TrEMBL record:
<dbReference type="InterPro" id="IPR034660">
    <property type="entry name" value="DinB/YfiT-like"/>
</dbReference>
<dbReference type="InterPro" id="IPR018531">
    <property type="entry name" value="DUF1993"/>
</dbReference>
<dbReference type="Pfam" id="PF09351">
    <property type="entry name" value="DUF1993"/>
</dbReference>
<protein>
    <recommendedName>
        <fullName>DUF1993 domain-containing protein</fullName>
    </recommendedName>
</protein>
Amino acid sequence: MLYAMTIPAYVNGLTALSGQLDKALAWGADNNVGELQFVAARLAPDMFPLASQVHFTCAQALQGATRLGAPGAPQISEDAEDFAGFQAQIAETLGWLDTVDAGAIDRDPDRPVDFTLPNGMAFDMTAVTYVRDWAQPQFYFHLVAAYAVMRHMGVPLGKPDYVSYMMAYLRPGTAPVA
C-alpha cells in the first residue's frame, strides 16, 4: 500500500516535471528568457528559486522512500545551475526509484518513522502517517512550486502538463477535438 502511494506518484510527478522543464527551455529560447533567469526565478522573495524547487522535489522523493526503508539513495546535495543539471537530477532520482523494492516500503505501515529537520524540529510518526502527512505533501509542494515558477515566468503550461501521466488512463474517443 505505501509503495503504491509513493513510488509511482514520485515517478509520475518527476516525469511530468521533466516535460515541463523541456517546454520551459524551448519557450525561453523562443521568447528571449535565458536559462539563468529560470534558474533564479522565484514566486516571492522569501521562497526558494526554481533550481531549489527542482532539487527539493527530487530530494523529497528520495527521502520519502529512504525513510520508508529503501536503501542506497543517491545524494543530490546542490541546486543545479542549468536545465541539463535539472534533467540530470531528475534522471538520477528516477533511475534510483526504479530500483526500489516494494517489500521494503510496504513491510509494516505502523512501524515508527522519525526524522529531524535541520532546524532541530523532530517528528515521530508511523509509516502511514508519514506518507500521508509529510512525504506526499512535501513532494507535491515543491513539484507545484516548480510548476508555478515556470508559469510565473510566462511558460504556457497547463493542467495537461502537470498531470501528463493521466493520458494513459484516457478512455478512447473522449479527448476534446481541437
